[in-house]
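Propose amino acids for all 153 sites.
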C-alpha cells in the first residue's frame, strides 16, 4: 500500500492529505466496522486524524458504496499523524485479510439432490439437529434452496 501525500490548505489551518490505494474493496465494510467503530478506534488514538473512503474514479460521488471505494484518504495536522494512521490502517487490513482467509478455509458447500433434501433435514428437523450437535458448537448449516446446496460454515 503506497501512499501519496499532498498539502491541502483551508481558511482555518493547513492539513496534510495522504491517499492510500485499496487493494481489496471486499474488506471495506469490515475495515470501517459497525457504525464506523474500527475507524473511530484509529482516529481516537491520533488527534486531528480524519479517515474517509473514496472512489477516485468518480470524485463527484460524495457517498460511494463500500464496493466502489478504491482509496483511503487520511487528513491530518502533521506528517507524523498521517504515517501513524497509515500504519494502523495497514495493520488492521492485514488482520482482516488473515481473518477472511481463515473464514474462507472453514466454509464448505455440500450439493444435495432436491429429492434428498428432506432426508437431510429429517422428520421435524431431527437429522439436521443431530448433525449440528455432532460437529459441535459454532458451526452453521444452512440450505440454499436457489442453489440446491447446503453451506457449512
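Proposal:
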Amino acid at each position: 500500500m503506497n501512499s501519496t501525500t499532498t498539502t491541502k490548505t483551508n481558511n482555518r489551518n493547513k492539513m496534510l492529505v495522504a491517499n492510500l490505494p485499496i487493494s481489496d474493496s471486499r474488506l471495506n465494510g469490515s475495515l470501517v466496522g459497525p457504525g464506523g467503530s474500527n475507524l473511530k478506534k484509529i482516529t481516537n488514538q491520533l488527534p486531528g486524524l480524519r479517515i474517509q473512503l473514496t472512489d477516485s474514479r468518480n470524485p463527484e460521488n460524495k457517498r460511494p458504496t463500500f464496493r466502489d471505494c478504491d482509496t483511503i484518504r487520511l487528513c491530518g495536522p502533521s506528517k507524523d499523524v498521517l504515517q501513524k494512521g497509515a500504519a494502523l490502517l495497514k495493520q488492521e487490513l492485514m488482520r482482516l485479510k488473515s481473518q477472511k482467509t481463515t473464514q474462507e478455509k472453514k466454509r464448505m458447500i455440500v450439493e444435495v439432490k432436491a429429492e434428498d433434501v428432506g432426508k437431510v433435514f429429517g422428520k421435524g428437523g431431527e437429522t439436521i439437529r443431530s448433525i449440528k450437535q455432532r460437529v459441535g458448537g459454532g458451526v452453521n448449516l444452512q440450505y440454499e434452496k436457489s442453489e440446491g446446496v447446503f453451506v457449512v460454515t
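The chain has a mean pLDDT of 80. The two ends are 31 Å apart (CA to CA).
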